[in-house]
Design a protein that fits this description.
This protein is an alpha/beta fold. About 30% of the residues lie in helices and about 25% in strands. The protein contains 18 helices and 28 strands. Strands 3-2-1-4-5-6 form a 6-stranded mixed beta sheet, sandwiched between helices. Strands 13-12-11-15-14 form a 5-stranded mixed beta sheet, sandwiched between helices. It is globular and about 95 Å long.
């Protein structure tokens, strides 16, 4: 059974070793440590209750290394709300106990067994049906779907009360269960893809054994698929996937239909006739044509991952400045789903840890176009590919190179790839946030590197931006190959700014060893800066004032000229 990536939440340093052992079971899970009490966690949080409730409301499975009562009291206000119920487990700090608390239908007992096996203890499973029968009838394994949860609860209650049951249809996973079976029993578990009305004494379970071949030009496709299944006497929950020709891979209509029906979308090459297409996708299945669609009905649940291939996906992501807590959730989710990760080795390491099945392709930082083309070749094979940037991928990073590679290509397979650009917190914004709000008004972001543009252009833009009284953010301010250019840039800015203009220097912000300094334009010299320093130069309105904890706050007010009346 698969789960969403869980969060491992710890309160003290003593839990970290156990958390790391659990993380080996779920390599993409992050360890959330309480700020001020935990060192070495993947990310820090300030308040336990707010963090736990936010994770729960985001439908994130929670593994909390603390007393079960603390977790129960924390989440109690949310339990009356209807909606998703993610798995929630309490684990003893020393790993001696694993207690599933919530999410019986979200695989919490499966997770409890996985974690307990890693910790070499017995899980404290208390679910009556699972203890008695050795399986959860209300949460069938992958490849099967329960027809109705409420009737299922009543059915399981009857079995717990002593009623016997007979099984109709093929359900190998039930053969291992300790069910009170009797061929003459009134109550039955019916396992079939056929559409039928359940009686009061019947539990319907559908094997996901049906694939439907579809065409991109069909209007109202989800309704057409439902009608076709009904005409073929197939229950909608038995639908395992939609199948289409790979020439329709970029179709929005197909993608939206699959989303509405809640099934994967798979593509097969070399077939235009729907009957031939679905026969190639599901060999040996019974195929019927209904309403211009082809319905394939297999005897067993389909291995969807073995049918054709998915639409390839390429996501260009921004990791932010380096701290895990500053990485946006969409990027974390993308990292969890990726099959291949490409990027400069330093940034790929920042993006980890990775599972054993995730392939890392590390290259030199100067090989941007080669990396972008490699990413498209992988994605065109149906893989889920990530190109990693630090900060934001669209700010002096890989998004532009990826789009340039696509712009230059006439390969239809590249243009059919699902391309996504996911933002990150840029170095300039992370540094500004640490300092206060030096970019609080109009500002200009520039790279002082002349590797890809002439220095004359840089000088012209610097002069115009400084004259326009914009706050300035300098990327790539200096290097051994360019030791003089920052000094020249400061000379240009000084022609338009007073010497007392505030300047913020942020080095490795969001990473271990970060440092933040405030100085002035007149006091800034090139030897205070290196390639890993972000330089923020204020405008004529930028202000500073002392922090009570030491240092200064820096901000550029949103008003200009005369201060507005409050």
């Amino acid at each position: 059974m698969t789960h969403s990536t869980p969060a491992i939440v710890i309160l003290g340093q003593g839990s970290l070793a156990t958390a790391r052992r659990i993380q080996q079971v779920y390599p993409t899970a992050q360890i959330h440590g309480l700020a001020g009490r935990v060192e070495g966690a993947d990310c820090l949080y300030q308040e336990f209750g707010a963090t736990l409730r936010a994770l729960y409301q985001q439908d994130t499975p929670i593994i909390a290394l603390c007393a079960a009562g603390i977790v129960i009291r924390t989440l109690a206000p949310l339990l009356l709300e209807k909606g998703a119920e993610p798995a929630v487990l309490a684990v003893a700090e020393d790993g001696s106990a694993v207690v599933p608390l919530l999410g019986g239908l979200g695989g919490v007992n499966v997770m409890a067994r996985e974690i307990a096996a890693a910790l070499q203890v017995a899980p404290a499973i208390t679910t009556s049906g699972e203890l008695r029968f050795g399986t959860c009838l209300l949460n069938p394994p992958s490849g099967y779907a329960l027809a109705d949860l409420e009737s299922g609860k009543r059915f399981v209650s009857d079995l717990l009360a002593g009623h016997s049951v007979r099984i109709e249809g093929a359900a190998p996973w039930l053969d291992q269960a300790q069910l009170p079976q009797d061929p003459q029993a009134v109550r039955s578990i019916h396992v079939s893809s056929a559409q039928r009305m359940a009686s009061a004494d019947e539990l319907l379970i559908y094997p996901r054994s049906v694939a439907v071949a579809v065409s991109a030009d069909v209007t109202d496709l989800p309704d057409v698929v439902r009608h076709a299944l009904q005409a073929a006497n197939v229950a909608v929950p038995a639908l395992a996937c939609l199948v289409a020709a790979d020439t329709d891979m970029a179709s929005t209509n197909l993608r939206q239909a699959a989303l509405e029906l809640g099934v994967p979308l798979r593509f097969v090459a070399g077939q235009s006739d729907l009957q031939a297409l679905v026969r190639a996708a599901v060999p040996g299945a019974n195929v019927v044509s209904v309403e211009n669609l082809a319905v394939a009905i297999a005897e067993q649940p389909l291995e969807v991952a073995q049918i054709g291939r998915p639409r390839g996906r390429l996501a260009v992501i921004g990791l932010g400045p380096g701290a895990a807590e500053l990485m946006v959730p969409a990027v974390k989710a993308e990292l969890a789903r990726a099959t291949d990760v490409l990027g400069y080795e330093t940034y790929v390491r920042m993006a980890g840890p990775f599972r054993d099945d995730q392939v890392q392709h590390c290259t030199d930082n100067r090989e941007e176009m080669q990396r972008a083309r490699h990413a498209f070749r992988l994605a065109a094979e149906g893989r889920s590919v990530i190109v990693v940037s630090s900060g934001d991928p669209g700010v002096f990073a890989m998004a532009a190179a990826v789009l340039e590679a696509l712009h230059e290509s006439d390969d239809p397979a590249w243009h059919s790839v699902d391309l996504q650009i996911l933002p990150g917190v840029s170095a300039s914004l992370a540094t500004a946030a640490q300092a206060g709000a030096p970019l609080g008004h109009d500002f200009c972001v520039m790279s002082l590197s002349d590797n890809l543009k002439p220095w004359a252009i840089i000088e012209k833009r610097l002069d115009l931006a400084a004259e326009a009284d914009l706050a300035l953010a300098f990327y790539n301010p200096i290097s051994r190959a360019r030791p003089w250019q920052l000094g020249r840039a400061l000379e240009i800015v000084a022609q338009h700014r007073a010497p007392q203009t505030p300047v913020v220097l942020g080095r490795d912000i969001g990473r271990p060893g970060q440092s933040l300094r405030t100085t002035t334009l007149g006091g800034l010299t090139a030897d205070q800066v290196d390639m890993r320093t972000m330089v923020l130069i204020g405008s004529s309105t930028t202000c500073t004032f002392p922090r009570t904890s030491g240092g200064e706050w820096v901000y550029t007010p949103r008003w200009y000229g005369e201060k507005p009346l409050s």
